[in-house]
Specification:
globular; 9 helices; mainly alpha; single chain
Length: 200
């Protein structure tokens, strides 16, 4: 995975960073924890300015969250609830889980969007309840931008400060990200197997 991201950045420059972060939001198992530090490291070689790296990563990430937001907005609470009723086993959630999530979001919606951008996987999925709750797009984008900018900046600067040492760290990043992905898959399989439908 690390090699793929590296190739994208070297061939496409800032666009490659933005594209990688866009895909990370569409397909969460591609980790931003790999993308942005690597991009920051490339900035130490003079390939790109660190501010360009942060801007490209932030823009790509912001574009990637919009489809999830509009999906939630289009389906609405009842639509997501029906979808959970039909496909709950594969989503590993029930209609009641959807209701509970909606209630939590009503109480702490703004904080959820802002802080959620700093939490892996949640960073992407928090866009759905924001859409379901019809959070105004301006507010959603503003909160998301602040959280996204903090996240991408921290990761990029970490890679930048590591400098040449990143080449050593990178040897461990790919196996770790692969291990995390395998663990997430195993957790998902367990939840599918142990899922109990409501009334069952």
């Amino acid at each position: 995975m690390e090699n793929l991201v590296h190739t994208l950045m070297e061939k496409l420059g800032a666009f490659g960073i933005g594209l990688s972060m866009f895909l990370e939001n569409i397909f969460p198992p591609i980790p931003s924890e790999l993308i942005m530090p690597l991009a920051g490291y490339l900035a130490t070689r003079g390939d790109m300015n660190i501010f360009v790296v942060i801007a490209a990563g932030s823009i790509g990430s912001m574009l990637g969250i919009l489809p999830w937001y509009y999906l939630g907005r289009r389906l609405g609470h009842d639509g997501v609830r029906r979808f959970a009723s039909r496909h709950g086993r594969w989503l590993t959630m029930t209609a009641s889980d959807v209701d509970a999530a909606a209630e939590r979001f009503k109480r702490r919606g703004a904080v959820s969007v802002l802080v959620g951008r700093l939490i892996p996987t949640v960073r992407t999925l928090i866009s759905v309840p924001a859409g379901v709750a019809n959070m105004p797009i301006g507010k959603f984008l503003a909160l998301s931008f602040v959280g996204t900018l903090i996240w991408t900046s921290a990761l990029a600067v970490a890679g930048y400060l590591l400098g040449q040492a990143y080449s050593v760290v990178a040897d461990y990043v790919d196996p770790v990200s692969t291990g995390v992905l395998i663990l997430l898959v195993l957790i998902y399989v367990y939840r599918v197997i142990s899922y109990k439908p409501e009334g069952g």
